User: Fold Molybdopterin converting factor small subunit from Motilibacter rhizosphaerae.
Amino acid sequence: MRYWAAAREAAGVPEERVDASGVDAALAEAVARHGDRLERVLRIASLLVDGRRVQRTDPLALTAGSVVEVLPPFAGG
Assistant:
């Protein structure tokens, strides 16, 4: 998993390995490791798997080497 912006801050790491078969399971594992602060960010974040936008509940199977990216909304210009 790769965390960006506020997700990185909430997790306390820029990326980590998570052993999960699906997106929802991977996110649940991340929350188990990092707590409520990350869960709050995940509620509003966009998710990418291998560069493709997905929803938390998509029945997409993760395989070895899949990259889940957590992108919270951010302001900028």
About this structure: Residues 23-34 form the longest helix (12 residues). Residues 5 and 74 are 8 Å apart (CA to CA). Strands lie at 2-3, 46-49, 52-54, 68-71. The domain at 2-71 is CATH 3.10.20.30 (Ubiquitin-like (UB roll)).
